[in-house]
Amino acid sequence: VKGKRKSFESDPCPVARALDAIGDWWSLLIIRDALAGNRRFGEFQKSLGLAKNILTARLRKLAAHGIMKAVPASDGSAYHDYILTDKGKRLHLVITAIWQWSETSLFAPGEMQRVLCDRLNGEPLARIEVRASDGRVLQARDMLLKRDVPSP
Amino acid sequence: VKGKRKSFESDPCPVARALDAIGDWWSLLIIRDALAGNRRFGEFQKSLGLAKNILTARLRKLAAHGIMKAVPASDGSAYHDYILTDKGKRLHLVITAIWQWSETSLFAPGEMQRVLCDRLNGEPLARIEVRASDGRVLQARDMLLKRDVPSP
After folding, report:
1. Residue in A with minimal Cα distance to B16
2. Residue B23: closest CA among A25, A59, A99, A32
3. What pTM did the predictor assign?
4. pLDDT in tens, B44-54
5. B106 exposed, middle or buried (CB, 10 Å; 0-12, 13-18, 19+)?
6. What whole-number distance in Å separates Cα of residue A84 and Cα of residue A68?
7. Residues A104, A113: contact at Cβ < 8 Å?
8. Angle at A70 between CA A117 and CA A54, to 5 degrees
9. Considering only alpha carbons, which residue of chain A is nearest residue B35?
10. ipTM reported for the complex, 2 dp
11. CB contact under 8 A, B28 and A23
12. Which residues on B lie below 8 Å from A141 (Cβ)?
């Protein structure tokens, strides 16, 4: 995206507001790597093929939004580990939703892909579904937008 | 993001590949608006406050990825409607996941927000959950990444 972007920090739409925190190109991939167990600056850099200054800026931005934090390295060295906060860990929902949409929509049969599995038994995850409060599975056409509702 | 971006079109990671299609700043908001019922160029423009040339480029990109398509206007005029394809409609999962994470993580109690509801009864949706194939609810720490798995 070229030019200065509008900030959605105070937008009443949750999707717009989320884009301020996680909507840039690299942030979701850093979060994906953190969910997969990466902790070290060098691990993120190797996985993403990203320039140091850009990775530093992205990690700082994620920290400013309370999604990741720097902690002393677990090996006792002078380095830092970069880990997800609880708010960041809850993004596993978003990562999984994108993952499943992409698997269904952007991969041809037989193409090699990465698969998200259940750590307990190595099985693929169940399909995520959007459901009504009474459990009915909802499609796009079944959803309605309400404006100006106070947040609980 | 400044400069030329790497393409993830053939990336084995579904999240990276999805970013090629929906990872820019405006695409998810266009998809949100289309899910909320917007169809006309002017409706998207008014909702997003976006320059015509940028909106045109984003709609073309979404069409190139098979997520939206231009169809003759439903009122029989010379205009087009811009509607989601089936592939695009399935993004309701992604939009809802981002929505729910954002509601929980980025809004203070009492702040005015937009709420996604069940069209049938106007009730808020159930919380989306990541589940194992046997139905257990999974958290971030319960997930495992497998590489080089052929797509079904």
Report:
1. A29
2. A25
3. 0.92
4. 999 999 999 99
5. buried
6. 4
7. no
8. 85
9. A140
10. 0.92
11. yes
12. 89, 119
